[in-house]
């Protein structure tokens, strides 16, 4: 089974006013002792107060973090379930004031 990647990876893709997606690499999650591959994608929304809401953060890299910092201050890190927790610690370390 091949998991598609949506190039370019690790870069902001504007999809509407104040809404971006960022596609990341494949991540493997252990399911019943098997490493099941999943593609990754996060969503960033600029809120009315100009702060940023980040849903399902992907693996961060310096270039991506610089792009995001130009948009505004990350104040919310959202990981709705276990598979989305993979990189939340790295993001919380980089944005310690954000609510996770």
Write the layout of secondary structure elements.
Blueprint: E1 13-16, E2 19-31, E3 34-46, E4 52-55, H1 62-71, E5 74-78, H2 88-94
Parallel strand pairs: 4-5
Antiparallel strand pairs: 1-2, 2-3, 3-4
Question: What's the quick description here?
Answer:
The chain is α+β, with helices and mostly antiparallel strands and 100 residues long. The chain has helices spanning 62-71, 88-94; strands spanning 13-16, 19-31, 34-46, 52-55, 74-78.
Structure description:
The chain is an alpha+beta fold. Helix content is 17%, strand content 39%. The chain has two helices and five strands, in the order E-E-E-E-H-E-H. It has helices spanning 62-71, 88-94, and strands at 13-16, 19-31, 34-46, 52-55, 74-78. The N and C termini lie far apart (33 Å). The mean pLDDT is 91.
End-to-end separation: 33 Å
What's the order of the H and E elements? EEEEHEH
Structural class by secondary-structure content = alpha+beta
Q: Low-confidence parts lasting 5 or more residues at pLDDT below 50?
A: none
> What is the helical fraction, as a range of percent?
10-25%
CATH superfamily: Ribonuclease Z/Hydroxyacylglutathione hydrolase-like
Give the overall shape.
Answer: globular
CATH class identity: Alpha Beta
Q: What's the overall average pLDDT, rounded?
A: 91
The proportion of residues in beta strands is 35-45%
CATH topology: Metallo-beta-lactamase, Chain A
- CATH architectural grouping: 4-Layer Sandwich
Q: Estimate nothing, just give the exact number of structural domains.
A: 1
The number of E-state strands comes to: 5
Estimated radius of gyration: 14 Å
Tally of individual helices: 2
């Amino acid at each position: 089974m091949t998991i598609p990647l949506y190039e370019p990876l690790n870069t902001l893709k504007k999809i509407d006013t104040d809404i971006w997606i960022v596609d990341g690499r494949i991540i493997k999650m252990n399911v019943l002792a098997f490493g099941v591959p999943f593609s990754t994608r996060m969503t960033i929304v600029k809120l009315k107060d100009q702060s940023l809401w980040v849903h399902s953060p992907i693996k961060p890299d310096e270039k991506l973090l610089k792009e995001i910092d130009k948009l505004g201050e990350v104040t919310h890190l959202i990981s709705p379930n276990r598979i989305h927790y993979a990189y939340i610690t790295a993001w919380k370390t980089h944005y310690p004031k954000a609510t996770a």
